[in-house]
Amino acid sequence: MNAWVDAPAYVGTITSFCTGQPAVVAYGSGSFSGPERLNHVTVGPGLDILMQSIGVAEESAGFPNFDGVLGIGPAALTLGTMPELSRESIPTATDNLFSQGTISENIVGMFYQPYVNPLLEATGQITFGGTDATKCSGNIRYTPITNIRGARTFGVLNRQSHMAAG
Questions:
Q1: CA separation for the pair 18, 9 (Å, rounded)
Q2: What is the pairing mode between strands 108-112 and 124-128?
Q3: What is the pTM of this model?
């Protein structure tokens, strides 16, 4: 399971389907458990996902003031999150956008800028399916996920890594 929403925040629609499968996820900072639902999810303009797996957190710990999490990969992190399907990975939002032909590459570009005033402007951007070359100058360099033991399983990048030149 790589996407979940707190049960009080979840609003089912006519496209929502309860699979009957339990989902249990433990992160470094907390956990959640609840049923899996499949639903139509929109993550941005033109980014619609059909049948996205979502855990509806009926119980959670360690996530105060959070409505949910959208995991973007890799799918291998989902192994064991659904007890009855413990040997299967669950496709991430990025995987589904790619397999459904919505994005042309199975990658996610991230842009961060200095945190100036969060009340006045956005300080970052996620681009599904590629990168936004208008956000940097120079060549874009891709950085692999760190090999540091433990952190590697959470898809963390080394602090010294540079995602773009410029």
A1: 16
A2: antiparallel
A3: 0.77
CA 97 – CA 46 distance, rounded (Å):
10
The dihedral built from the CA positions of residue 125, 24, 101 and 138, taken in this order, carries a sign that is: positive
Buried b (16+ CB within 10 A) or exposed e, 95-109: bbbbeeebbeeebbb
Q: Are 49 and 112 in contact (CB under 8 A)?
A: no
Alpha-helix residue ranges (DSSP H) falling in the chain: 93-99
Tens-digit pLDDT profile for residues 2-19: 788 888 888 888 889 999
Degrees, nearest 5: CA angle 150-81-11: 120
> E strand or H helix at 17, and its extent?
strand 17-26
Nearest to 111 by CA among 123, 93, 94, 128: 123
Q: Does 145 or 160 have the greater pLDDT score?
A: 145
User: 104-152: per-residue pLDDT in tens?
Assistant: 998 888 887 776 676 766 677 888 998 888 887 788 777 666 555 444 4
Measured distance CA(108)–CA(111) in Å, rounded: 10
